[in-house]
Amino acid sequence: MLGRTKSPVPAAAAAANAFIPMRTFTAAAVVVDEAYPWEFRPGGMLVQKRDPDSASAAAAAAAPASTIRVRVKYGAAYHEIYLSSQSTFGELKKLLSERTGLHPQDQKVMYKDKERDSSAYLDISGVKDGSKLVVVDDPARRAKRLLEMRHQAKIDKASKSMSQITLEVDKLTSQVSELEVIITKGGKVAEKDVLDLIELLMIQLVKLDGIIADGELKHQKRMQERRVQKYVEKLDVLKAKNAMLKTTKSVVTTKWETFDSGFLPTTPAAATSNAPPVPTPRFDWELF
């Protein structure tokens, strides 16, 4: 008996109905969904990225950048500044610094009674040709900048002093190495030379103690102090060895001086030791 087979068509139809196509995204949609609030200008300045959804940004992107003239009030004077419409307020501050003498970091630029950030764009903020702005001096920012300058000046001074001390210590340690070679080979040096090197190294150690440093510079200071102390201790050891050599070879040194000078010493002790023995005269006495 033959059985009836089921048709595969209903199963295929059910699978087709169950299939849901995946949603595809275009490259443009991905760019629009992602947010990039900051970007780097060609000059290296970090500025606010243009909003691709804003109408002003779309219009600015469609139209080429043009030169605009803005009037900036500072005190009782007005200054006309020509610059690109796509410039930032930070670039405007640099141009105003040449006219007003104010440091860019000390300026507060107001447009429509609102302070504008240095990274904001002129065109996105609504600045157009002929717009009026106001710039004022900010004492708080000036004080902060001066404090930062003083702090940086101290760091630069400490770094310069550290470089000079390092150079001087390098020269002194080279002289210490020369003395060490001479004394190790059995030669002797003037004790004054050893004492002078110790004194010069101690002077550099005092200079290092007067440097106020932080961070990496502080680490360099500690390393240099340990280095100077190490060579001072080495000189103390060399001084003791040199004193022993001087004591044991004093006679040899005297003979070398006599040979080189070409004449005998005039001291009574030397004359007595080097003169040949004089025979004692003998007399025969007669008794009367």
Automatic annotation (TrEMBL):
Its job: Co-chaperone that regulates diverse cellular pathways, such as programmed cell death and stress responses.
A molecular-function term among this protein's GO annotations: adenyl-nucleotide exchange factor activity
Pfam family, one: ubiquitin
Gene behind the chain: LOC103711136
Cellular component, GO annotation: cytoplasm
SUPFAM superfamilies recorded: BAG domain, Ubiquitin-like
Gene3D superfamilies: BAG domain, Phosphatidylinositol 3-kinase Catalytic Subunit, Chain A, domain 1
Domain BAG residue range list: 161-239
Organism in which the protein naturally occurs: Phoenix dactylifera
Protein name listed in UniProt: BAG family molecular chaperone regulator 3-like
InterPro entries: BAG_chaperone_regulator, BAG_dom_sf, BAG_domain, Ubiquitin-like_dom, Ubiquitin-like_domsf
SMART domains linked: BAG (SM00264)
The organism's place on the tree of life at top rank: Eukaryota
Domain Ubiquitin-like: start-end pairs: 66-136
Keywords on record: Chaperone
GO biological process, one term: protein stabilization
